[in-house]
Recover the amino acids of this structure.
């Protein structure tokens, strides 16, 4: 009775239902009032608010990283001083909607055969994944306040703590609006008909419309060990018995089953002073039992100093708990795990129940149905913010944290490309690198692991899904066939090539004498680098001035001409300008350029004759000699940079692939 008086057991007392004997389906929904900002009044002076949070890569992390996540999660659990609920909802996913934004759209451009091949691959992988299951995670906070305004202020305070904790965990957390919370409940009651939800709290208040009419379904039957509605059979389960130690994969094993389910972890924090007081009482009780045991032995002339094994173990365990609470910042919680499983038939429901119970047995847990408490267990599991069952047990922070809600992040960006399957969840990865702050990346792997194949698949997906342009720097000339397949341009850079790129190419017809667009200045800077590569040494200030002078004169002379008389200069024109200068340094620069203008390596002394405006361009650099390689890389990168800038001005993305990156760097050096 002493424990009851100090309120320890009162903490796990279940809340009373709004209607003890519901006369309609609406009365089974335990919500009194809803607000647009997402705060629900679930009982008199009791309010709840729900947040949706992102999954993180916990299962795939290293052991050290998992320990770090575990410790930060423990810190978060300790930081909340109100009742809360963590819910993992395996909701229904419309596979047709998924296909609409995952599969490549067909176009009238002659490449639909390739799109069909891509779509067949993606479709096959979709079928291998968890069909029709989309997982969402919620955190529901419940507080007691006198009125709505006080509750709103308290939730604002709690949100700061919650946001900080989830930032440390690396997960986004966002509060749900009132309409979004109702949508979550609607999707459960109307499984398979999620699109029918069109309720709006603001509009409903104007006409006096009751939200419960839109939430509930046509029929809801409760039986001792399950319940049914017009579209599904459901059963509420709970964990009755826990082992002394539990794997942090346990909750993930249950939630990763390819079934529609709701798994909810209800947590009631025990105040620190009440925890200490209760543990001391328990410890004194054990000490008293030991003294009584010793007295009985003494009466029987048994003066052994050893106490019984059971009492020794009990005392050692309570001492360990007291040390944890005092020294390791452990808190005490009442915890209940409720699981709602759904099926299309009673037979399927029994099969799923057996599977869940088997997972429990494998982890030394006893999982049983909530007999005669199916309605209460349903309301407890839903992210409403109430708890109507008392099947709770005490846990310390670390024991509670083992019920880890995190598994692995899903990659599912709208308008993205297919990147294989998630090895944990078995769902397809659809990523849109253009949505990232920095979309650049490296592809690493041992020889033969499929690096080039991966990139070719991505190139194809990019080319077939939109109007983005693709440029490939190919040190091994292995992408020529890919370019030809998609009607692209191949620029084979070599001494024997017939493909030419003019380093002095510029839109001279839109050039003005004042160089307001900075084109001449940019070309001057480029020519400084080109001449430096040809000379093979750093330029001095006199040489730089001469080169800059010649570049400016070359383009300003062209800009002075009438538009119909303008021409694109080539290296020969720049070479002649150098020779016409009076400084000896100009003659030296011209001499260094002669090999690449009039000599055997004069591939850049021609007008561009390749379609550099093609959506798919491959630059082959395998056959470049030692002398030509650095200059070619410079000219090529100048051309590519211009292309990227032009595409950016048009609002078009450019995907640049550099295969065998180490070779390209060596060539540039």
């Amino acid at each position: 009775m002493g424990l009851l008086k100090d309120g320890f057991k009162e903490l796990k007392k279940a809340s009373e239902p709004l209607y003890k004997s519901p006369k309609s389906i609406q009365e089974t929904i335990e919500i009194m009032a809803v607000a647009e900002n997402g705060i629900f009044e679930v009982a008199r002076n009791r309010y709840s608010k729900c947040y949706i949070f992102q999954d993180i890569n916990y299962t795939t992390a290293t052991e050290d990283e998992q320990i770090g996540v575990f410790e930060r999660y423990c810190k978060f659990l300790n930081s909340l001083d109100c009742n809360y609920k963590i819910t993992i909802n395996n909701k229904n996913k419309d596979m047709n909607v998924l296909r609409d934004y995952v599969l490549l759209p067909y176009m009238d451009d002659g490449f639909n055969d390739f799109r069909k091949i891509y779509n067949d691959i993606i479709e096959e992988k979709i079928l291998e994944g968890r069909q029709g299951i989309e997982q969402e995670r919620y955190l529901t906070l419940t507080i007691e306040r006198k009125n709505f305004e006080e509750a709103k202020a308290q939730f604002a305070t709690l949100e700061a703590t919650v946001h900080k904790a989830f930032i440390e965990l690396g997960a986004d957390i966002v509060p749900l609006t009132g309409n979004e919370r109702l949508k979550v409940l609607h999707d459960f009651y109307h499984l398979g008909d999620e699109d029918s939800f069109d309720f709006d709290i603001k509009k409903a208040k104007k006409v006096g419309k009751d939200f419960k009419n839109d939430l509930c379904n046509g029929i809801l039957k409760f039986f001792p060990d399950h319940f049914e509605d017009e579209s599904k059979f459901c059963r509420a389960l709970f964990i009755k018995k826990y082992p002394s130690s539990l794997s942090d994969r346990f909750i993930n094993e249950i939630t990763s089953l390819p079934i529609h389910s709701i798994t909810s972890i209800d947590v009631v924090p025990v105040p620190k002073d009440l925890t200490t007081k209760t543990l001391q009482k328990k410890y004194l009780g054990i000490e008293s039992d030991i003294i009584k045991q010793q007295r009985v032995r003494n009466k029987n002339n048994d003066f052994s100093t050893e106490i019984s094994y059971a009492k020794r173990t009990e005392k050692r365990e309570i001492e360990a708990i007291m040390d944890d609470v005092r020294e390791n910042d452990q808190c005490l919680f009442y915890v209940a795990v409720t699981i709602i499983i759904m099926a299309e038939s009673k037979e399927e429901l029994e099969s799923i129940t057996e599977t869940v119970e088997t997972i429990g047995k494998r982890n030394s847990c006893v999982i049983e149905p909530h007999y005669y408490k199916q309605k209460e267990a349903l309301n407890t599991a839903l992210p409403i913010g109430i708890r109507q069952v008392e099947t709770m047990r005490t846990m310390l922070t670390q024991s509670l944290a083992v019920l880890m809600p995190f598994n692995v992040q899903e990659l599912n960006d709208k308008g993205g490309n297919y990147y294989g399957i998630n090895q944990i969840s078995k769902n397809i990865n659809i990523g849109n690198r253009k949505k990232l702050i920095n979309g650049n990346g490296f592809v690493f792997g041992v020889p033969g692991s499929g690096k080039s194949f991966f990139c070719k698949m991505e190139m194809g997906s990019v080319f077939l899904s939109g109007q983005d342009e693709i440029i490939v720097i190919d040190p091994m000339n292995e992408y020529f066939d890919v370019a030809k397949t998609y009607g692209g341009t191949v620029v084979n850079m070599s001494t024997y090539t017939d493909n030419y790129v003019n380093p002095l190419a510029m839109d001279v017809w839109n050039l003005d004498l004042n160089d307001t667009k900075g084109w001449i200045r940019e070309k001057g800077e480029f020519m400084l680098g080109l001449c430096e590569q040809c000379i093979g040494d750093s330029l001095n200030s006199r040489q730089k001035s001469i080169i800059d002078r010649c570049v400016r004169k070359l383009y300003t002379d062209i800009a002075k001409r009438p538009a119909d008389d303008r021409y694109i200069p080539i290296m020969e024109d720049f070479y002649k300008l150098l020779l016409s200068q009076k400084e000896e340094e100009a003659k030296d620069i011209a001499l260094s350029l002669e090999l690449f203008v009039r000599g055997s390596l004069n591939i850049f002394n021609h007008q561009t004759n390749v379609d550099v405006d093609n959506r798919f361009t491959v630059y082959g650099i395998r056959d470049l000699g030692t002398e030509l390689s650095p200059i070619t890389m410079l000219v090529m990168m100048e051309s590519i940079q211009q292309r990227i800038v032009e595409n950016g001005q048009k609002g078009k993305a450019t995907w640049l692939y550099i295969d065998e990156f180490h070779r390209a760097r060596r060539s540039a050096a």
